[in-house]
Design brief:
Elements (H helix, E strand, L loop, with lengths): L11 E3 L14 H4 L5 H22 L3 H5 L8 H13 L7 E6 L11 H9 L4 E5 L1 E6 L8 E4 L2 E6 L2 E7 H4 L15 E8 L2 E8 L3 H21 L8 E4 L3 H8 L3 H6 L2 E5 L1 E3 L4 E3 L2 E4 L8 H17 L9 H13 L6 H4 L1 H10 L18 H19 L1 H12 L7 H16 L3 H14 L2
Parallel strand pairs: 1-11, 9-10, 10-14
Antiparallel strand pairs: 2-4, 3-6, 4-5, 6-7, 8-9, 11-14, 12-13
């Protein structure tokens, strides 16, 4: 079936946050578990209590009680998030939701002087840039709580501690990622994707909600057919209603929003599982303009990233991660090269096949030839699958994406040569030559 072409630039984002007190370094076990003195113990107990009360009020939908946990100088951002969360959490299947102190401690970070002066004027006797965690889990899609480091400024008064602000922006750093329960009209739709479930999260009604919900079972099955059953076989899918919502949830730039139909995000990978926590496929508002067939390609593409997350290293070559994802997304949807890769087909007609595999820099959203890079990457995967079979393509993916790869150009070629010889029985040069010849033969 021929479909319209969309460049589904799948920016994979890791939504991880480090402890502000750790100063970006790795803490020693002794530092994390050192005995607390009476002052620290009192801080810990007091802040833990106000965070527990605040969390309970939000879970109960009691905005008035939640607001009492906020300081007189609390930022508008914190106040608005509190009001929204008190309404939104109850609309979503969130059996786990709490703010609490992290068990790790590092060198203390001082509250900025201007804010400290305001707190002193209000009668505060102590302030703390506290290592706060947000822990939450959506029913059906989160096998373990998602844990985000969301450090907060806290202030103490005779009656107890209060929440003042997110610490990140005060130090010129990012604040907490946006969450669906902060939407104006958060809603969730459970979709059966045997053997488990998926969840579509939206802001009010969206034309995409029912369409994606209807496509999820077949898309999940298609990805499983290629990758196997060693993944959740389902996902959390979030539909952003605006560019601002998308950027807040995905931590993405405007360039990503303009270029992408969807992105995948995750919070962390637990190596003991291995399990990827907090995985979400986030669709941009522009995805509503796609026809259903193209949307299905994008969904399968992104679900492949979900399935392969624990087998994909951070430094994996983009031509492998994106090329195989696009191959899985497009399987069975085209009969001619120009239907799946019009920019590549035009380049071949004008100048012949590409001389070599695309580099990571070719995929930057700012690159005017990014579409050509993505389509070239797809064609490499399609060539390997057509010539050697899907199983060899999967093994080739794992060989190249499953371990951190070097960045030195000579070592990059060596690593690719080794993977090609082990999995395909040919050298990297032969891989490129056979791929170019395959492209020349395509109708």
């Amino acid at each position: 079936m021929a479909i319209a072409v969309v460049v589904a630039i799948a920016v994979t984002l890791t939504m991880t946050f480090t402890d502000f007190g750790a100063d970006r370094g790795t803490q020693s076990q002794e530092s994390a578990q050192r005995p607390q003195n009476p002052f620290e113990e009192a801080r810990t107990l007091g802040v833990s209590q106000i965070l527990a009360d605040y969390s309970a009020a939000l879970r109960d939908g009691d905005a008035a009680s939640a607001m009492t946990a906020l300081d007189e100088s609390a930022t508008d951002t914190v106040r608005d998030r509190t009001r929204r969360a008190a309404v939104g959490i109850g609309a979503l299947p969130l059996p786990t939701f709490e703010y609490r102190l992290s068990s790790t401690r590092g060198p203390e970070r001082l509250v900025p002087a201007d804010l400290q002066a305001r707190l002193d004027a209000q009668g505060s006797s102590d302030s703390w840039v506290a290592p706060v965690q947000l822990r939450y889990a959506y029913e059906g899609i989160d096998s373990a709580p998602v844990v985000l480091e969301v450090p907060m400024v806290m202030a103490r008064y005779p009656e107890g501690w209060k929440i003042v602000a997110d610490a990140g922006p005060l130090f010129g750093e990012a604040g907490p990622a946006g969450q669906v329960w902060e939407f104006d009209q958060p809603a969730a739709k459970t979709v059966s994707t045997p053997p488990g479930d998926s969840l579509v999260l939206t802001n009010g009604t969206s034309s995409l909600t029912d369409l994606l919900a209807g496509q999820l079972p077949a898309a999940t099955a298609s990805v499983t057919d290629f990758w196997g059953t060693r993944w959740a076989q389902g996902a959390g899918v979030t539909i952003a209603g605006s560019d601002e919502e998308f950027a807040s949830i995905a931590g993405s730039s405007q360039a990503d929003t303009d270029a992408a139909a969807a992105v995948t995000i995750f919070s962390s990978v637990d190596p003991a599982g291995p399990t990827a926590l907090g995985q979400r496929v986030v669709f941009t508002p522009q995805a509503a303009q796609l026809d259903p067939n193209t949307l299905a390609v994008v969904l399968r593409h992104e679900l492949f990233h979900v399935a392969a997350r624990t087998a994909t290293a951070a430094a994996a070559p983009v031509w492998v991660t994106e090329g195989v994802a696009e191959y899985v997304g497009r399987r069975g949807t085209y009969t001619r090269l120009e239907q799946a890769a019009p920019a590549l087909a035009a380049e071949i007609a004008a100048n012949g096949p590409p001389a070599d595999l695309p580099t990571d820099a070719n995929f930057a959203p700012s690159n005017p030839d990014a579409a050509l890079a993505y389509q070239s990457a797809w064609s490499v995967a399609a060539f390997v699958a057509d010539t050697y079979g899907d199983d060899k393509l999967k093994r080739f993916y794992i060989a190249l994406a499953g371990a951190d790869q070097p960045t030195d150009p000579t070592l990059v070629s060596t690593a690719q040569n080794t993977a090609a010889q082990i999995v395909l029985g040919i050298s990297r040069d032969d891989l490129v030559a056979q791929w170019r010849a395959w492209l020349s033969r395509q109708p």
